[in-house]
User: Fold this.
Amino acid sequence: MKSWYPEDVLTFCPSCGTRGFEPSDRTQQPIMHLHCSSCGFGLFINAAASVVVLIEKQPGLLLMTRRLKEPEQGTLDLPGGFIDPGERAEDAAAREVFEECGLRVRDLKLQNRTYCNQYRYGGLTYYTLDLVFTCSAENWDELSEDGNEVETLLIQKEHINPSDVGFVSVRNIVLDYLQGRIFTCGLGET
Assistant:
């Protein structure tokens, strides 16, 4: 199987184009820095910031999505995605919920827990740092789905099976929600 890790995919220097773009330290896992042996250019492999949002329609009824495309096609997920350059995390959370589920949100609250993940897309592994938000929806009648990337679902807490969640970080967020380490109380239907 072909590797998707940056050190195996990025073999030519982005600056001078020569082969020999290699990890500075192969003993370090994951690899955090690539270096060109020809021109000296260096590239740090940093985490990409992303948001994940928990929204309950009513206590114990959680908005989830089912992924319609790879990566992790067919698995459960939560609304969310990458933060765009120059975008605040709060704005990214609101944008992602709107894009995926048609809902406008309010009362966004950043949780005091973060999660790490590996997101494989387009032949490359991206390391993510996931920021978790809870919020409420302005109008549940606007709930829809983009029809392209996700299907929206409302699932009772007791019917959520964490093993149906595809991404490791989102699975851990769901587990923390189910075990009461992330609270969404008071953020349901208004």
